[in-house]
Amino acid sequence: MTTLLETRRVVLKNIVVALDASEIADRVIETLQDLVLAKDSKVILCHVFPPPESEMELPADRPHPDSPALSSLQVEKQLQIYQTQLPVESEIELVSGDPAEEIIRLANIHKADLIVIGSRGLTGMNRIVQGSVSSQVVEEGPCSVLVVKVK
After folding, report:
1. In sequence order, what are the residues at sequence separation of 6 or more whose Cβ sits closer than 8 angstroms to the Cβ of residue 150?
2. 62 in any annotated domain
């Protein structure tokens, strides 16, 4: 007797992978590599840069990024390295805007079957003040979302 789990297969054709410059990015790629993907699957590696004016608009009591922003060339080079580690076709999307909104927009554009995103593991007041991109993507995304947590 076969079970529903044994007979139902989910085919992931288009996967949007949201990566930032944090240490969780490597973990996200490792998790993606653990998935069994069809030969015709396509992975869209994306990075969202905050708009230049956003730093000026941050309230004084909101935490500011500790590290200087990476250049688009540095980010693109890192995403190209990740591309070489993938067994399927992939492309890179570098965009600017609100991270959750842009990830959701890209998922809609590419008709994604899955979004893979890291979670910074913020809790309590940090989560309230800084917000959670992964939570917003889970809530508003057009498809399933795999949230990769820090080990």
Report:
1. 23, 24, 27, 118, 119, 120, 121
2. no
Range of the domain at 106: 10-55+67-149
Task: Read off the DSSP letter of residue 98.
Answer: -
Cross-strand bridge partners of residue 14:
42
Q: Which residues pair with 90 in a beta bridge?
A: 43
Q: For the chain, what is the domain count? A: 1
CATH number at residue 43: 3.40.50.620
- In a domain, residue 2? The reply is no
List per-residue pLDDT tens for the chain, 151 residues long: 555 555 567 789 999 999 988 889 999 999 999 998 999 999 999 999 988 765 545 554 444 444 445 688 999 999 999 999 999 999 999 999 999 999 999 999 999 999 999 987 655 555 444 458 999 999 999 999 999 988 7
